[in-house]
């Protein structure tokens, strides 16, 4: 019986969790009915003196819902509902670090960088109100650290957030009324000093060292973040129990080294952990780990044997009582599920592996058991959130595990000495950089594997299908228990099925002529010149997407880059195209607006030869030839950027095509006069917007109409009226939002894509 974990405290903890989540997900009458029903069931069990466990579980559900209701009532949502879309004055205290958001592409334009942060209000329009709110501001937020008292005027955007009373856009300057306390200022300075200490290190080290040590991902690139997510390594930069355990072990070792013993030792460890929590900021995973560690330390200090599973139950219950809105926080759920896996499944996996390993390989068995257990328990939540399965996460976590402790320990020392001894802190960063680069290398390598991730359904359907798959595999192996010789072939067959189902075999298709990259709401057209060379027309809004598309198409040399106009959804992806590729020349439109985008493009291009192109320019090669038929020297004042789009008509490997950029009706009328006849391939103007010249489409009468458009875009592209026009005049219509990257192939002329094999 001693091997059975003590899970008694988990029942009330899970009950409180269910109650809190039910009150938030089934808001109003359904939640009330559910909670009354659970209370009634608990009373029935109580009076009949049956099932003590179910009594406790049902009472815990009721208490969880009651606690959530009390917290909900305290948010004063009615007050903010009355101010919706109105300006209000707010005085409050900052409770979180500002989270900077990168500039986003909103259709044609790039939004300004903004920051979001949580406040606890003191006054709202002169009325004393103390509730949490989330604000967004474009002001300088460098000095807005937790504990700072501020005042501003803003507009209420939403009052239905799960963990805050309202979401408010700050319209005025955020004025600082008073500074935070000394400890908050010290931890802020330490975080800033650590960021300064990693300056000059390799990009991977700059992003990962602060991320692993204090959860600061300021310098982490989008590409590395994406690859870490695909390989199951994102938890490394979310400070959790592992970091607390390493810091606690370090403080314990140092204290024992100098002779500190007894309860004084545990008090010092607790104080060190409290300061570390303030340094890394109390996120849900940190709070869960902190409560669990505190309970465990208290048990150790009192002389009792530390019980990890009861500590987890206490942590869940206490955190949900303090903040019931964690019940629907995915990060909190992932943290708890991973910890439960380590406590419940890891020992069993370790014992299973030790049947086949010698005593000398015990450490290897432990190292394998930890990522496997955490991955298995977290898998349903990951699938529900992301809609993908990482098939390499166990392997990736296994080979990076040895470098986590050195980075955490040395990084902790760096944070302690970064203020008084910045040069030494930087030298320590140089020492630990190879470990961080190893993690980045593993993430990039594993993410590039063709079978690294498996697409899956999101939400409950994804969880259910995953469970069905797991049960099916388990049944197969139970049946094969008597046929041991068949287990290895079955495993190999399953591996081959996964590889074949996740690998894009035959992509790009042989002898492809033209591709429309799936770059979201934007354009990215590639004309093949063969031998890894191409002509590219526009680069979309996202550097990663155009880079991935060109990488898959094996394009390394850009003979000619055409930027039809300077709207963000056509040029912001330029850094991705320039990544590791040579560009011989660039054609640009005559209209340099928006001016900020034009300036950004010129800076990115540097010394690459570029020229503004008018009607009459031509390009000729053995495979491709075309002529620019728009723009003219005289601009069109209506929508000048779109109506100045470079438009080309020509031949690609013997097939005629027309690419009009984002031309609108005024310029389409001019272009109509210059087209002499039909074309076989049409890149539909302006992502299929309703601004299409019917006579132009009828005159071209293309065999293939290609629409580059983003999924669920806010503009309704492609417009229904445009789709009806194309259906009457095109042989086939293909869209990137439904089919991914499109490739035109020959003999016969048709389109294939990354999501469908062949369709017409």
What's the SSE blueprint?
Elements lengths: L9 H16 L3 H20 L3 H22 L3 H5 L5 E8 L4 E3 L3 E2 L2 E2 L3 E11 L2 E2 L3 E6 L11 E10 L8 E4 L4 E4 L3 H16 L5 H12 L7 H9 L10 H17 L4 H19 L3 H18 L6 H15 L7 H15 L1 H9 L7 H25 L1 E3 L2 H25 L4 H27 L4 E3 L3 H21 L7 H16 L11 E3 L8 E6 L2 E5 L5 H10 L4 E7 L4 H4 L2 H5 L3 E2 L2 E3 L6 H11 L4 E3 L5 E3 L3 E7 L16 E6 L2 E5 L5 H8 L8 E3 L10 H7 L3 E4 L12 H10 L2 E4 H4 L2 E4 L4 E4 L7
Parallel strand pairs: 7-9, 15-16, 16-17, 16-18, 18-19, 23-24, 24-25, 25-26
Antiparallel strand pairs: 1-5, 1-8, 2-5, 3-4, 5-6, 5-7, 8-9, 8-10, 11-12, 13-14, 13-27, 14-15, 20-21, 21-22, 22-23, 27-28
Helix pairs in contact: 1-2, 1-3, 1-11, 2-3, 5-15, 5-16, 6-15, 6-16, 7-16, 8-9, 8-10, 8-15, 9-10, 10-11, 11-12, 12-14, 13-14, 14-15, 14-17, 15-16
Concise account of the structure shown:
It is found in: Cell membrane. This protein is an alpha/beta fold and 760 residues long.
Provide a descriptive summary of the structure in words.
It is found in: Cell membrane. The chain crosses the membrane at residues 25-46, 52-71, 235-255, 264-280, 309-326, 332-349, 361-385, 391-414, 426-447, 459-480, 487-507. Residues 212-476 form the ComEC/Rec2-related protein domain. InterPro entries: ComA-like_MBL (IPR035681), ComEC_N (IPR004477), Competence_DNA_uptake (IPR052159), Metallo-B-lactamas (IPR001279), RibonucZ/Hydroxyglut_hydro (IPR036866). Keywords: Cell membrane, Membrane, Transmembrane, Transmembrane helix. This protein has 760 residues and is of the alpha/beta class. It has five domains: 10-73; 81-180, OB fold (Dihydrolipoamide Acetyltransferase, E2P), CATH 2.40.50; 187-455, no CATH class; 461-502, no CATH class; 514-753, Ribonuclease Z/Hydroxyacylglutathione hydrolase-like (Metallo-beta-lactamase, Chain A, 4-Layer Sandwich), CATH 3.60.15. The chain contains 26 helices and 28 strands. Strands 13, 14, 15, 16, 17, 18, 19, 27 and 28 form a nine-stranded mixed β-sheet that branches. Strands 20-21-22-23-24-25-26 form a seven-stranded mixed β-sheet. It has a five-stranded mixed beta barrel with strand order 1-5-7-9-8. β13 and β14 (525-530) form a beta hairpin. α8 (241-257) crosses α9 and α10 packs across α11. The protein starts with 9 loop residues before the first helix and ends in a 7-residue tail after the last strand. Mean pLDDT is 84; it is low at 756-760.
């Amino acid at each position: 019986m001693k091997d059975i974990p003590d899970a008694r405290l988990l029942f009330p903890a899970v009950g409180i969790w269910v109650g809190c989540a039910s009150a938030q997900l089934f808001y109003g009458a359904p939640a009330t009915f559910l909670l009354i029903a659970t209370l009634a069931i608990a009373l029935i069990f109580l009076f009949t003196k049956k099932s003590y466990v179910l009594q406790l579980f049902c009472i815990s559900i009721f208490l969880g819902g009651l606690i959530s209701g009390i917290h909900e009532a305290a948010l004063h949502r009615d007050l903010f509902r009355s101010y919706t879309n109105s300006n209000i004055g707010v005085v409050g205290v900052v409770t979180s670090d500002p989270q900077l958001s990168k500039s986003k592409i909103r259709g044609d334009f790039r939004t300004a960088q903004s920051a979001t942060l949580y406040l606890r209000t003191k006054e709202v329009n002169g009325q004393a109100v103390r509730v949490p709110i989330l604000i967004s501001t474009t002001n300088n937020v460098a000095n807005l650290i937790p504990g700072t008292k501020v005042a501003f005027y803003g507009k209420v955007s939403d009052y239905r957030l799960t963990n805050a009373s309202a979401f408010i856009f700050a319209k005025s300057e955020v004025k600082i009324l008073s500074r935070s306390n000394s400890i908050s200022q010290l931890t802020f300075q330490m975080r800033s000093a650590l960021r300064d200490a990693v300056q000059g290190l390799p990009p991977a080290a700059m992003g990962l060292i602060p991320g692993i040590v204090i959860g600061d991902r300021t310098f982490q690139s989008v590409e590395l973040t994406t690859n870490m997510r695909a390989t199951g390594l994102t938890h490394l930069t979310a400070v959790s129990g592992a970091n607390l355990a390493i810091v606690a072990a370090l403080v314990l070792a140092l204290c024992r080294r100098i002779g500190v013993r007894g309860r004084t030792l545990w008090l010092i460890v607790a104080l060190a952990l409290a300061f570390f929590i303030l340094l890394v900021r109390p996120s849900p995973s940190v709070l869960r780990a902190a409560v669990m560690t505190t309970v465990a330390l208290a048990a150790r200090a009192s002389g009792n044997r530390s019980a990890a599973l009861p500590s987890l139950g206490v942590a869940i219950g206490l955190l949900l009582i303090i903040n019931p809105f964690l019940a629907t926080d995915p990060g909190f759920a992932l943290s708890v599920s991973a910890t439960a896996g380590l406590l419940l499944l890891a020992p069993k996996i370790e014992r299973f592996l030790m049947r086949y390993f010698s005593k000398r390989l015990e450490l290897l068995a432990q190292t394998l058991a930890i990522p496997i257990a955490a991955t298995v328990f977290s898998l349903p939540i990951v699938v529900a959130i992301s809609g993908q399965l990482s098939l390499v996460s166990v392997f990736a976590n296994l080979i990076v595990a040895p470098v986590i402790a050195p980075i955490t320990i040395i990084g902790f020392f760096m944070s302690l000495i970064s203020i008084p001894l910045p040069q030494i802190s930087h030298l320590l960063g140089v020492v630990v950089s190879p470990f961080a680069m190893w993690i980045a290398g593993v993430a990039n390598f594993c993410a590039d594997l063709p079978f690294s991730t498996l697409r899956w359904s999101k939400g409950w359907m994804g969880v259910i299908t995953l469970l069905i798959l797991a049960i099916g595999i388990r049944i197969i192996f139970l049946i094969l228990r008597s046929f041991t010789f068949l287990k290895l072939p079955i495993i190999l067959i399953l591996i081959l099925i996964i590889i074949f189902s996740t690998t894009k075999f035959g992509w790009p298709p042989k002898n492809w002529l033209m591709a429309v990259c799936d770059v979201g709401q934007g354009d990215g057209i590639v004309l093949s010149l063969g031998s890894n060379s191409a002509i590219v027309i526009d680069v979309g809004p996202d550097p990663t997407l155009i880079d991935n598309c060109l990488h898959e198409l094996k394009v390394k040399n850009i003979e000619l880059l055409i930027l039809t106009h300077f709207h963000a959804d056509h040029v912001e992806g330029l850094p991705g195209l320039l990544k590791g590729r040579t560009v011989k020349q660039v054609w640009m439109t005559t209209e340099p607006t928006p001016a900020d985008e034009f300036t950004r493009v010129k800076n990115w291009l540097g010394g690459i030869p570029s020229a503004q192109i008018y009607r009459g320019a031509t390009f000729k090669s053995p495979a491709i030839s075309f002529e620019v038929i728009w723009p003219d020297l005289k601009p069109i004042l209506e929508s000048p950027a779109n109506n100045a789009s470079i438009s080309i008509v020509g031949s690609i490997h013997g097939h005629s095509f027309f690419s009009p950029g984002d031309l609108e009706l005024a310029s389409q009328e001019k272009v109509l006069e210059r087209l002499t006849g039909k074309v076989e391939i049409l890149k539909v103007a302006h992502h299929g917007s309703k601004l299409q010249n019917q006579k132009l489409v009828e005159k071209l009468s293309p065999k293939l109409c290609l629409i580059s458009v983003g999924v669920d875009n806010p503009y309704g592209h492609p417009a229904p009226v445009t789709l009806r026009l194309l259906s009457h005049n095109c042989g086939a219509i293909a869209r990137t939002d439904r089919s991914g990257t499109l490739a035109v192939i020959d003999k016969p002329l048709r389109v294939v894509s990354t999501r469908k094999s062949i369709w017409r």
